[in-house]
Structure formats: C-alpha cells, structure tokens
From TrEMBL:
<keyword id="KW-0804">Transcription</keyword>
<feature type="domain" description="OmpR/PhoB-type">
    <location>
        <begin position="158"/>
        <end position="257"/>
    </location>
</feature>
<feature type="DNA-binding region" description="OmpR/PhoB-type">
    <location>
        <begin position="158"/>
        <end position="257"/>
    </location>
</feature>
<dbReference type="InterPro" id="IPR011006">
    <property type="entry name" value="CheY-like_superfamily"/>
</dbReference>
<dbReference type="GO" id="GO:0006355">
    <property type="term" value="P:regulation of DNA-templated transcription"/>
</dbReference>
<keyword id="KW-0597">Phosphoprotein</keyword>
<dbReference type="InterPro" id="IPR036388">
    <property type="entry name" value="WH-like_DNA-bd_sf"/>
</dbReference>
<dbReference type="InterPro" id="IPR016032">
    <property type="entry name" value="Sig_transdc_resp-reg_C-effctor"/>
</dbReference>
<dbReference type="GO" id="GO:0000156">
    <property type="term" value="F:phosphorelay response regulator activity"/>
</dbReference>
<protein>
    <submittedName>
        <fullName>Transcriptional regulator</fullName>
    </submittedName>
</protein>
<dbReference type="GO" id="GO:0032993">
    <property type="term" value="C:protein-DNA complex"/>
</dbReference>
<dbReference type="InterPro" id="IPR001867">
    <property type="entry name" value="OmpR/PhoB-type_DNA-bd"/>
</dbReference>
<dbReference type="GO" id="GO:0000976">
    <property type="term" value="F:transcription cis-regulatory region binding"/>
</dbReference>
<keyword id="KW-0238">DNA-binding</keyword>
<keyword id="KW-0902">Two-component regulatory system</keyword>
<dbReference type="Pfam" id="PF00486">
    <property type="entry name" value="Trans_reg_C"/>
</dbReference>
<dbReference type="GO" id="GO:0005829">
    <property type="term" value="C:cytosol"/>
</dbReference>
Length: 257
C-alpha cells in the first residue's frame, strides 16, 4: 500500500502526493546502503529530502559548508550540493573529491545560477536539478539512477572492501567502522587486506607472514598473533565472539561469518 506524504512538488511548495518509490517495510533492516553527503547552507530546508533518503536505506551526512578535511577522508558514494541559496558556498567540489570521482548532484536555482554556469557544469560531468521545478520524487529517482550508473561503470569496486559495518579503503589506506576512522598501522592494514582478499578462506600464520612481511622474513609466527591482537583491540572485535576476524585453532585466521 502506497503512503501519502506531505512533500514538495517543487521542493519548497508543500502538497500531498502518493510516492511511487519502493520502500522497505516499517522496521526493516537495511542490509545494503550507500553513503550520501548533503552540503547545504540551510539544511532544515531539505529536511523532507533527508527524511526520504533515510527511508530509502541511504546513510545521510549533512554539512553546512565544504569541510575539505572531513570530506576527503570519508568514503562517499554520492554528494548532493544545495546551490539554490545566495551564499558563498562554492559551486565546485574540493579537488580531492573530484580526483576520487565522487558523483555530484547539484540542486540549483536558475534565478541565481546563470544558464551559462549550469551548461558549463553539465559539460564537466556534474548533474544539475532545478530546485524550483523538481519534486522530491524526481530527486530520489535521479539519486537512484546516478548510484546505479556508478555501480555499472565500476562493476565490483576494487578500491574498497566492505565487511558488515567495516569499510577498508585501499586507495587511502584507511579503515572505518561506520563513519569513524580507525587508526591502524600499515602492517595491521595489510593483515586486514590479506584476510579480506582471501574471501573467507583460512590463512595460516605462515601464509599471512608471506603476504604481509614477504617470504624473506624469518620472524616467528607469534608476530602475526601480536598484530592480530592489536588490530582486534582497535576494531573492538571480541575473539570469543568475532565480528571481523575469526581464529581457527591450530591453523590461522579468516574473516568472520
């Protein structure tokens, strides 16, 4: 049964309409999601959009302005930038984000942003939607299509690995639990990567030593145990009830079920 919600037909005019978008059942667990960042100088003006995105199982983070330091370390699947207000918010994403290929959807006001600027940004691969004439449903449909297009273009992502709420970013050599970045050493990162690359296969301590330290390393196998213990501590992973790394007694380690 479709719900009736008080949404905008343009986004800033409240009307009643029936959403045709599929939605999870009330209380359903979202086992897959994407992380969307919204940048708007007036976030409350987009509260209905934020609400609908979360209903559609997206993780939404809201910023009032460009925070390059924070944004450059977050794994982001899509960015929505509100350029509909007369503010000093820059029209272009910080260069690190553009270099990483983060797709951007811009909500524009054609009375503020000239048609020349809109056309120029479109030629640069940015996607624009007019805030005056777009409904929330149209924005959501565009979000769905942009994320689907990104998935088709990249296929199975090779720059990141996901395990439950754990994200390992190979390009940035970074580890996140949820949105919190975990401070790991290069050796701990390489250990985690080796286990993830094994796809659930058990790796012996010797195999892990060969993959992480190289075949010429002659240290004892307890070196692996010490680093795994440290990594588990940082991830708050209980070895008796492992969420990320499971011990196979007498053999080695593998990714937990």
């Amino acid at each position: 049964m479709q719900r009736e919600r008080e949404l905008s037909s343009p986004l800033n005019d409240s009307i009643l309409f029936q959403s045709k978008l599929p939605e999870p059942a009330i209380g359903a667990y979202c086992d897959t999601t994407h992380r969307i960042v919204i940048i708007s100088p007036l976030p409350y003006s987009l509260h209905e959009l934020v609400r609908e995105l979360t209903i559609q199982c997206y993780d939404v983070l809201v910023f009032r302005h460009w925070d390059e330091e924070a944004l450059s370390v977050l794994p982001i699947d899509l960015m929505i930038v509100d350029l509909s207000k007369e503010t000093k918010l820059g029209a272009a994403a910080p260069q690190p984000l553009r270099n990483q290929g983060v797709p951007m959807l811009r909500l524009v006001n054609t009375e503020i942003l000239s048609s020349e600027e809109v056309n120029k940004s479109s030629s640069e691969g940015l996607v624009n939607l007019s805030l005056e004439s777009s409904t929330i449903e149209q924005v959501l449909n565009r979000v769905h299509s942009m994320l689907a297009q990104g998935s088709r273009q990249s296929g199975q992502r090779t720059d990141q690995a996901q395990l439950k709420d754990l994200t390992v970013d190979y390009n940035r050599v970074a580890v996140y639990v949820g949105t919190a970045r975990i401070d790991v050493t290069k050796t701990e990162f390489d250990l985690l990567k080796a286990l993830l690359d094994a796809g659930g296969k058990v790796l012996s301590r010797q195999e892990l030593m060969d993959r992480v330290w190289g075949e010429q390393y002659f240290g004892g196998s307890n070196t692996v145990d010490v680093h795994v213990k440290s990594l588990r501590h940082k991830l708050k992973d209980d070895p008796k009830a492992p969420k990320y790394i499971a011990t196979i007694r007498g053999v080695g380690y593998r990714i937990a079920d």
